[in-house]
Amino acid sequence: MKKRTPVSSIMTTTVISLNTKDSLETAESLFKENNIRHIPVVGGSKVIGMLSYTDLLRISFADAVGDDEQDVDTVVYNMFTIEQVMTKNLVTVTSTTTIKEVAEILSKREFHALPVIDNGKLVGIITTTDLINFLLEQF
């Protein structure tokens, strides 16, 4: 295993994002349709927050109801905005940050994804799943 491998070699570069005008229903649909758990929230070209599927679960019954009971989520989602639910104080990394450094950050913090920012622009996202898959490839 190379010690200085940059995170750019394993990060997701096709990033789905939201903006603060999007609804929480839209966010839930994106999570489910794309089988993802973290979505960066952008304001213009700047990343201003991160919304996780866990954030939605904290305020809703997203996993507790069936498709025919979607009205419950709609009522709850209409009570909040993405900006109210998202994490705002983000830790970010660059594409040249090493995989080891990213692993250290994620192992010490209570979140599971980091936006990858180069020159103020969102270029990717790195998650604990990406790290686990990288480690599995080493064996």
TrEMBL record:
Residues 11-69, 86-139 form the CBS domain. The keyword Zinc does not apply. The keyword Flavoprotein does not apply. Pfam families: CBS. Coiled coil: none annotated. Keywords: CBS domain. Gene3D superfamilies: CBS-domain. The lineage of its organism: Bacteria, Pseudomonadati, Bacteroidota, Flavobacteriia, Flavobacteriales. InterPro entries: CBS_dom, CBS_dom_sf, Diverse_CBS-Domain. It comes from Winogradskyella jejuensis. SUPFAM superfamilies: CBS-domain pair. CDD domains: CBS_pair_AcuB_like (cd04584). This is CBS domain-containing protein.
